[in-house]
Structure of Alkyl hydroperoxide reductase:
Amino acid sequence: MKFDYEVLIIGGGPAGLSAALSLGRMSRTALVCDDSRPRNAPSSHLNNFPTRDGIHPAEWRRLVKKDLEKYQTIKFFEGGVLSVEKSTSGFTANLSSGISAHFKKIILAYGVEDKPLPVPGFKELWGKSIFHCPYCHGFEIRGSRLGFISNSEMTFHMLPLINDLASDLILFTNGKAEFSDPQRELLKRKNVELIEEKITGFIFEGEQLKALSLANGELRERQAVFFHPTLPFALKSQIGETLGCEKNQLGFYKINERGATSVEGVFACGDNVSPGHSVLLAAASGAMAGAGVVFALLGEEFGNA
């Protein structure tokens, strides 16, 4: 098979761009496919990233792409990857432009698909007054009257972080809570109010949350809310599953220390491999996956030599 590029990177967010940077530094050829669906598009800033704390996500991506301009082996395609097929010698990818291209390795960097709560106001406030990560948005709303929407085994993992930020906290389970008696007792000891009513809407002005409306007719005032998605996480593409990549119980791809999945030649990075969802961690994961691909390519070349 004649290869158009050595590597196909599916996803042009922090993980994919950082993977491209690792590959560019070693003069490996790669095509970055980006369908312009960044997870943090609703947010006006990204945080917890040294030298870029508070920068707009779109500006951060622009700066990274500018850094990549000097690496002539890295190219971009603005569109999606419809499918990827594995052969004995490599991979064939069908792009949304109608073109097929051949690659030696694949990096899955397309992240997760957030599932909005299907009630009025959620989409309008996502990334504005409804957030997923205390490290990304907590500092700006510290000392506020906060809510936390969660009803899973991960609830009590995030709860201490959010409670530490709040002047007072309400835990909304949006239905019957799936908590043990000791967990309910812990909530009482920490003065965290538990509400098991269904949420029917979010009351807001502009980008500012005012209150949550409940099925029993109550309105509960809150200034911001953290939302934990339903498990397992949904990924933005099924290409990894189609190729046979194994996933864990949280819905993430299983990888080794260099980002390799269970399928030979396929690597993964970013939000689709770990619950630690931030730009910094996704970028670090992408850098490692890029380095892992370089090691794999050089190992094959060195062995052949």
